[in-house]
Amino acid sequence: MDKKGQIPAIVIFAPTASGKTALVQRIFGEGSLSRFKGAGEIISADSQAVYKYMDIGTAKPTQEEMASLPHHLVDVVEPDKQFGAGEFLEEADRICRKIHERGKLPVIVGGTGFYIRAFLLGLPPTPISDPVMRDKIKQRLSSEGNAALYHELKQIDPEYAKKIDLHDGYRICRALEVYYSSGKTLSSYMIPVEKRSEYSFCTIILQRDRKELYERIDQRVLSMFRKGLRNEVEKLKQMGYGKDSPGMKAIGYREFFDGQSQDEDALIQRIQHNSHRYAKKQYTYMNGISGTEVHADDLNAVENIISDFTAANKSIL
Predict the structure, then answer these.
(1) What is the distance between the alpha carbons of residues 287 and 142, in angstroms, rounded to a whole number?
(2) CB 17 within 8 A of CB 279
């Protein structure tokens, strides 16, 4: 560790289709020409990449990319399991310590705002779970549907409702459980504002022009269908995963369960539209997090930021 006893950690945040995977390969991968070649290991901060068997729709790093550069928290849970910010934080902390012990630099890369904020700031205190209340709300979710409970949440806790999606049944249920168990809204619990002291953070926020980003998203969705996204979803269905499986709530999968047209063009348009909305929400969710904004293609700028950071922290690099 450095003189303060902290673990130096690089955090790279960017929305979907920004080019995060390609960027870290160019800096840390085996084929890199950068001075940081082989110096880091990636911890994925992507709430979809954690799920097994979901490869095409999540745009995971390829096997070749992961062989060139170690990736963690990819393919770790079944699609019917929940993997929230708490699970992510516990695992990310454990892996960061191991990476640092190996003399490498932990590099947290992703676009899931819940994960990134949890890693940087920690989690706010929340009431102990009430299993009875949770089961009641889950039963209501099943019988009344996401839209009804999301509307209820907007009346109770509009601040928190703005941060989550109508399809995020897990977080809708959790917020209602907290309210009906404690009488307090989830957003009323104090959110940490100071970065965690056990790390020395270097936070980089990759930016792209909105129009360019949307075009990249659209091309990615088309590529997913060419690679066999529909077949991947059908295989997942055959394995027993359905619309209520947490993994199937992800964009690129949930559209196959939404009761609307399964015509390929219609599916593509819905996934593209939902991905645009998600990308916009990703940036909004990271508002207030301090970091250096860099264009996603500016490799030299990112390398210079990392170089200054490692020098200041007296890293083994």
Answers:
(1) 33
(2) yes
Per the CB < 8 A criterion, the answer to whether 23 and 111 are in contact is no
State how far the Cα of 218 lies from the Cα of 231, in Å rounded to an integer. Answer: 20
CB 42 within 8 A of CB 72: yes
Q: Could you tell me the pTM of the whole model?
A: 0.84
| Tens digits of residue pLDDT in 120-175 | 999 988 777 889 999 999 999 999 999 999 999 999 999 999 888 888 998 999 99
**Token digits of residue 176:** 């209602």
DSSP state for residue 195 in the 8-state scheme: P
Identity of the residue numbered 35 = R
User: Taking the alpha carbons of 279, 281, 287, 289 in that order, is the dihedral positive or negative?
Assistant: negative
At 156, which amino acid appears? I
End-to-end CA distance of the chain: 12
Which residues on adjacent β-strands are paired with residue 110?
Answer: 13, 45
Separation between Cα atoms, residue 143 and residue 84, nearest integer Å:
24
Nearest to 180 by CA among 147, 143, 153, 159: 153
Are 247 and 48 in contact, with CB atoms under 8 Å apart? yes
Both tokens of 307, joined, read 């170089």
